[in-house]
Amino acid sequence: MLGETSGACTGLILSGGGARAAYQVGVLSVLAELLPPGASNPFPVICGTSAGAINALALATNAQDFGAGVERLQQVWSAFSCDQVYRSDWPGVTAQAWRWIRANLLGVPSSQPTAMLDNAPLRSLLQRTLHFGQIDEALQAGLLRAVSVSAFGYQSAESVSFYQGRERIQPWSRHRRVGVQTRLGLEHLMASSAIPLVFPPVQLNREWFGDGAVRQQAPISPALHLGANRVLVIGVSDNLANQPAGGRRGPRLRAALPPTLAQIGGHLLSSTFVDNLEADIELLERMNKLAGYLPVGSRMNGKGLRQVDVEVISPSEPLDIIAARHRKLLPRSLRAFLRGSGATRASGGSVVSYLLFEADYTRELIALGRRDALAKRDQLQRFLSLPPVHG
Fold first, then answer.
1. Cα–Cα distance, 226 to 45 (Å, whole number)
2. What residues form the membrane-spanning segments (predicted)?
3. Residue 2 — pLDDT band, cuts 50, 70, 90?
C-alpha cells in the first residue's frame, strides 16, 4: 500500500465546515494526479468530521481506485445546489421555521428535534451515492486500516469518534473524547454533519448527536489512535495559512458598526469548525519538538512521546470573502429568512460560506484547493513518498 511503507502509516484528516469542504476536493484532485493511473487509496487511515466526514467516507467507499473516487466527489461538488442539501423551497423553509419557533420560542412540546433547516435532501443524496458495504470490502482487501467519523454527544458532552477497522482496534477514552468501534453507516454521517441549530441532531443508540466539530478538542487524535504516525490535514480555514509571522497581531481595524447577528454567528461557527484544529496542530508541533529531545532508542521503541510528521494544506484566500461575492446565489427563501441577521450583506459572508451549497461557489473553492495543492506539489510528493510525476 502506498501510504503504509517502511513502517509509515499515513492518515488523512478532513475537517468540517459545511460548503467549505468543497476546497478539500480540489486538494484531493491534485493528490490523485500525483498517483499512478488506477492507484488505490494512499491513506491507510482516513478521518473526517462534519462535511469532511462525507468526503472521508466517499474516499473509503472508493478505496480501490482513489482517482475514480475523487472524480465522483468532484462531479457532486461541482454541480451542487442548496436544494440537494436542505429544503430551500418556500413551503419547506417556512414550515421548518414555524416548527422551530413553536418549539424554541413558544415552548410547544415536540417529539422530534428541531432546527432552522430541514436536511432531508442530504440524507436522500447520501443514500443514493454512497455504498457503505464497500468500506468493509476495502478493509478486508487491505486498502484501508481504519476510517472514522466524529460526532458530538449532546447528553454526554463528549466528542465520539466512530470508527471501522480492518481488525480489532483498542477503543480509547480521554477527557471529553472517546473512540467507539462500529460499522459506519448513513446515520453516523448525518450526525457528524448536523451543524448546531442549523440541522437537526441524530439519534444513535440512546443518545442524540450533532456536528463532530463541536468541542472536538483534539481533531488529529483519532488518526493517531487508529495507527497513523504521519498525517495530512486538509483544513478549510485561511487562518492556518495566513497567521501573522512570529505570533504578531494583524493590523488594527478601523472603527466599525456594531456586529450583526450573522457576524457573531460566523465567529461562533469558526470557533466550532476551525479553532480546535489550529490549536491541535500547534500542540502537535510542540510535542514533536519535545520528542526530538528524547534518546533515539526511546523513540524507536515507542516509549514516551513519539514524533508525528504533519503536513497541512489550507486556503490561501479567505473563504468568507469568496462566499460574500456569491451570496446572492442563496435561495430567495433563505435570503429572506436570514436578511434580518445580516447574513445577506457582505459582512455576513462567514455564515454564508458554510451554507452556500451552490455550484459557482463550490467550483471556486475546488479551483482554490487545486492551486494551493499545486503550490505544495513537491512537498506532498516527499511527504507521501511518491515518485515525481513528469509532464
1. 7
2. none
3. low
Report whether CATH 3.40.1090 matches the domain 10-239+273-295+304-383: yes
From the list 65, 211, 238, 280, the catalytic residue is 211
Copy the grid coordinates of residue 143. Answer: 486498502
CB atoms within 10 A of CB 89: 12
Cα 96 from Cα 87, distance rounded (Å): 9
Q: Which of 15, 29, 40, 50 is catalytic?
A: 50
* Of the candidates 50, 41, 47, the residue with the CA atom closest to the CA atom of residue 69: 41
What pLDDT, in 10s, does the model give residues 22-77? 999 999 999 999 999 999 999 999 999 999 999 999 999 999 999 999 999 999 99
pLDDT tens digits along 148-196: 999 999 999 999 999 999 989 999 998 889 999 999 999 999 999 998 8
Instruction: Decide if 119 contacts 186 (C-beta within 8 A).
Output: no
DSSP state of 361: H
211 is catalytic: yes
Report yes or no: 45 and 12 within 8 Å, Cβ to Cβ: yes
Residue whose entry in the numeric block shows the C-alpha cell 471501522: 164
CA distance 38 to 160: 34
Q: List b or e across 321-339, with b for residues whose CB sees 16 or more CB atoms inside 10 angstroms.
A: ebbbebbebbbebbbebbe
Report how far residue 130's alpha carbon sits from residue 139's, in angstroms, rounded to the nearest whole number.
16
Among all chains, which residue has been given the C-alpha cell 460526532? 151
Check if the beta carbon of residue 282 is closer than 8 Å to that of residue 276.
no
- pLDDT over threshold 60, residue 118: yes
The helix/strand/coil state of 25 is helix
Instruction: Kindly tell me if the per-residue pLDDT of 285 is higher than 70.
Output: no
Domain segments of the chain as ranges: 10-239+273-295+304-383
Is 50 a residue of the active site?
Answer: yes
Q: pTM of the predicted model, to two decimals?
A: 0.85
